[in-house]
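DATA SHEET
Item: assembly model
Revision: 1
Owner: S.N.
Input lines:
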Amino acid sequence: MSEPTPHAPRGFAIHTAPVGLADDGRDDFTVLASTVPATVSAVFTRSRFAGPSVLLSREAAADGRAQGVVVLARNANVATGREGEANAREVRESVARTLGVPEAELLIASTGVIGRQYPMEKIRQHLKGLALPFPEGGFDRASRAIMTTDTRPKQVGVRVGGATLVGIAKGVGMMEPDMATLLTFFATDARLDPEEQDRIFRRVMDRTFNAVSIDTDTSTSDTAALFANGLAGDVDPAEFEEALHTVALALVKDIAGDGEGASKLIEVQVTGARDTAQAKRVGKAVVNSPLVKTAVHGCDPNWGRVTMAVGKCSEDTDIDQDRVRVRFGDVEVYPPRAGGADGEDALRDAVADHLRGDEVVIGVDLAIADGAFTVYGCDLTEGYVRLNSEYTT
Amino acid sequence: MSEPTPHAPRGFAIHTAPVGLADDGRDDFTVLASTVPATVSAVFTRSRFAGPSVLLSREAAADGRAQGVVVLARNANVATGREGEANAREVRESVARTLGVPEAELLIASTGVIGRQYPMEKIRQHLKGLALPFPEGGFDRASRAIMTTDTRPKQVGVRVGGATLVGIAKGVGMMEPDMATLLTFFATDARLDPEEQDRIFRRVMDRTFNAVSIDTDTSTSDTAALFANGLAGDVDPAEFEEALHTVALALVKDIAGDGEGASKLIEVQVTGARDTAQAKRVGKAVVNSPLVKTAVHGCDPNWGRVTMAVGKCSEDTDIDQDRVRVRFGDVEVYPPRAGGADGEDALRDAVADHLRGDEVVIGVDLAIADGAFTVYGCDLTEGYVRLNSEYTT
């Protein structure tokens, strides 16, 4: 079993600095790299507007070997054309030279405003002074330096066998990961068979980062990568998978609860589906419904909106409203009970009670077969609208 | 050519009354019926949680003959089980008896809160006193009586040949019609071949009501129907189609501009698509993006969010970011121009200017083939969140 630990995996060095991608003096430039060769498993956004960072990193990770990543926060370098691509190559090349690794073994990730060129003069100035050694550890700093509108850093670490696994993530808006999340990096000193590592990584990502949605908007920059340098020796793969799932799920819940403007985490547990894909589709329809999200925000026991959202899956003709069951926490709200208006009032009071908590659980049983999937999201608030009405200006 | 007119089509009688479905004394009960037999064309929500009103009306409209519709506003009668179904049958049967038409020639539509039973005592009380004749005309009253959170009634009328066509609609939230809209009724005294009428109706609905989205949430109650009683004789079908398109598009724009909390109409014109379906998919991705909608609300020239939304169509692998063009009004924002930060600033100023108007036009040219589709929506505001956080309570 894995347990929380403040320790960092051996052999990972981290550099962070305020380079000036935004004008607030915060750290916005991060290099995270193993001091020895490492294997990598990675997944990326499927956006048709993926930026050059994603394109370069996807290429670099393809052979399963990569030693680290350079991360630029507050500017996505997306929709920036040939100039943006040349800039990404220049930054990665320069950092790889400093690290003494081949360019093709370094990932690059970038997150922030779309459609703006990097401030290359500031970046070049900083790269000129960059020199080894970087201090080992420092995941705390890294988890802060990759933030954009996050209100808090996200970091989770566990022990697995004789090794350590740590994960950091950022992401609070433009957030419906499609094959990956925003920026998430895992580092471990465990040693795993590279192909097995990759299968484990993809299985876990699918049940965690691909199960979260803040606002249905898929980022152009989604990147999730696990670096394993083997310095702590072999670990049991099943134990490692459990540890990775623990870390990833904790990050996902932290991300959903910190969604832009969010005040509550929403967990939608779908069971009884034809298959996993249907369970996920129905869960996403519920967790992404603006009317469900606003009702949760207002602690309004308007449970009918959940049935509406399930009903939106109109291609799923095996969903039968006479068999579906819906609950909030332990309170079953549908099918309707006899008892008229008094019964309806008591039910609404019980639902409102559950909604007043920080974590809202909505259960949907489709009663078709035994497919199940749980998705995570957050409420929709005036804060989300305010924040996103004035993001660039 | 069609022209606006205040006249009503001949032979349609309307009854409205405050029956008490909500406790505010407003009209909430409407009967709209032709005084002579009529043909009907109708489309309905594809929601898997369609209410008994939709199920009964779909059946009734199947043979193309129906004389009118009874509409109950402020209670959707959805997710109400067998009791709700029995109530819908009772209401329709009683009204049909008063009108002296077979039950199967009367549609029923209901809109409002989901998951509550009708207040049947109040409704029965009203039905007991219901008697012919209803006054002819009165589409103004009807357009008000079917409202829920609409801030204004929606009614458009035109002349077509010697006939008149009028349309009324309600709908401002839970609004991404799927084969139909919320409640929309058209009445005309034109005479058309029933099959041709139906083809015209479906073609027009597809380009108008199926092209609007307020918040991605598909209603359980969507119903659109055209009643034609032929009292004004034959009309030219092409002319009628144009008139119906004019009326429907005017209603759609009125609906989008009156979206819950909305301050601006957003029109997304997609061109250069592989086919119509792709153009519609891309248009919906843009007009439904919460990040695009909030940026428009804040007049924030954050055009990169439009490229993000186009990129979300990840199955459309023929979308090539090197060929896509994006504009706000007449201002092309993508592909990026050379010229660095100064050029970027000037561009953002021009976009911000366009955003300050009441109607925002976003153009996306995919440069693949010549498929085109235009969709309509509205901005996302704190008012939407406020309104929907406290709808039932």
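QC remark: Confidence is low (pLDDT under 50) at residues 1-5 of chain A.
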